[in-house]
Amino acid sequence: MLTGKRIILGVTGGIAAYKAVYLLRDFQKAGAEIRVTMTPSATRFVGSETFAALSRNEVAVEVFNDAQPGKNWTKHIHWGEWADLFVIAPCTANTLSKIVHGQSDNMLTSTLLAARCPILICPTMDGEMYESPSVSKNLEQAGEMGYYILEPEKGYLASGLDAIGRLPEAQAIINRSAEIIKDHRIQGPLTGKKVVVTAGPTREFLDPVRFISNPSSGKMGIAMADAARALGADVTLLHGPITAAVPDRIQSEQFVSADDLFELIKSHRNADIFIKSAAVSDFKPKTRSDQKEKKDRAELTIELEKNPDILAWLGERKNKGQVLIGFAMETENLINNAKQKLERKNLDWICANQLNSENSGFNSDTNTIHLLGPGTQKEFTGQKSEIASKILTEIFD
Ligand code: CTP
């Protein structure tokens, strides 16, 4: 239901904080990836270690890092960019009031202000508090400001009252979360499509300290991933050891060698679209030494063997409706070589780029790409981000 969705669970200081532990588990069972932020008072009810262990992630409580001053102080911004949804459960009257008035005096409220995703508030408190004029007014205002509110349920409360104020059951919160995420999907020609983009170089190790690689920065692949996301796709970026930073908004998995990438591709093989911008090494050392090769010899010969051609493997098994977009890096006969690769690997489209031309290629922010496909041959020049979106618009719009 929430497969691959990224949710920040905000826990505030009410007795229902203990239920957030089960909610976290249920979110995970529904397929979501969870990060937890807690207000300091929430940690009086449940220890942050519980959430850290279950979410397999650090829990954000403090804005300032006393142990390492200055480190990670922009976490609220990165988390805000990372999430598809922010759920505050339970949300106390105090945090509700802070949200409505734009306060950001702790990690939870700071992250909330930075978040670009929809926000679901689950107000949970004692019945008398819930019905107070200020809470009613704050809830009304929060709704008007665009926050989603899941009304609390009536039932037996910690105070002993039987009144409205209970945190709804986990399933109700999950159902509402899934609806909100669906409603907020970017609408475009790739909405609902699963797109896998590969980026960066591979490393083929000879011994523990040396490898064969290439200078690919991963910038073109990241630009393709971002462009696919902007057209509505659910994107997974598979990247090698790259110098460019992967934006928090993009889901990513890492590989080192061509064999690692092959395994990742197999695990995603039912994706709708593959965009293979990675610069995959064609060969790897036949043997890999466990110890560092010493220089106590006059010569060293490295025997290489072929890596699997991952794109050709996908081409041989292409499902109906699946789209394969390859890249061709050439130093000569650009168009002819690219056309041959298009056919040989059973691709739908190929983006050919000339490596040795000015303002193009590996580490540059700009590029020149010749897009070849059914009845199409077009040239795009400019920033990699602009080219990426033009290529995908040309293919899918
Ligand atoms: N590719 C791949 N697996 C490989 C080699 C390349 O999936 N072992 C993919 C690349 O990601 C790219 C396309 O195939 O999308 C073409 O890569 P390129 O290096 O240009 O061509 P090669 O097929 O390796 O052929 P050559 O080295 O002879 O140019």
Could you name the key traits of this structure?
binds cytidine-5'-triphosphate; eight-stranded mixed beta sheet; Rossmann fold; alpha/beta; 2 domains; 19 strands; five-stranded parallel beta sheet; 397 residues
Mean of pLDDT: 94
Q: How does CATH name the architecture of the largest domain?
A: 3-Layer(aba) Sandwich
Poorly predicted ranges: none
CATH class assignment of the largest domain: Alpha Beta
Oligomer: single chain
Global morphology: elongated
Distance between the termini: 28 Å
Strand content: 15-25%
How big is the Rg? 25 Å
Main-sheet strand order equals 12-11-8-13-16-17-18-19
Tell me the number of structural domains: 2
Number of helices: 13
Largest sheet, if any?
8 strands, mixed
Return the CATH topology of the largest domain. Rossmann fold
Class derived from helix and strand content: alpha/beta
Distinct compounds present: cytidine-5'-triphosphate
CATH evolutionary superfamily of the largest domain: CoaB-like
The overall strand count is 19
Percentage of residues assigned to helices: 25-40%
How would you describe this protein?
With 397 residues, the protein is of the alpha/beta class. The chain has 2 domains: 6-184, 3-Layer(aba) Sandwich (Rossmann fold), CATH 3.40.50; 194-290 and 298-396, 3-Layer(aba) Sandwich (Rossmann fold), CATH 3.40.50.10300. Helices cover 32% and strands 25% of the residues. The chain is built from 13 helices and 19 strands. Strand 6 (153-156) and strand 7 (162-166) form a beta hairpin. The longest helix has 14 residues, at 170-183. The protein starts with 5 loop residues before the first strand and ends with a helix. The model has no long low-confidence stretch (mean pLDDT 94). The structure holds cytidine-5'-triphosphate. Cytidine-5'-triphosphate (CTP) binds next to helix 11 and strand 16.
